[in-house]
Design a protein that fits this description.
Layout (H helix, E strand, L loop, with lengths): L1 H15 L1 E2 L6 E4 H6 L1 H6 L3 H10 L3 E2 L14 E4 L3
Antiparallel strand pairs: 1-2, 2-4, 3-4
Helix pairs in contact: 1-4
Amino acid sequence: NIDEEVERLKVEIKRLGAVDPKDGKVKVPFGVIVRDDQCANIFEALVGTLKAAKKRKVVAYDAELLLQGVHDKVDIILLVD
């Protein structure tokens, strides 16, 4: 269920990320999420879950497509708790 995946993603972003003092939002680089063992075990299609979360305005990131290596420094920003 994609809604459950998005909820789990929010938990993992909070676990792996840090609060940006400028705006108070939790941010985590894509490379950190994609290389995390726990996330690898939870999410079969991490990029698909991120895309669904972005569509639902749960997260934001500045990339059309996220590729490991190429987009490791792209911040995934949690928009809602």
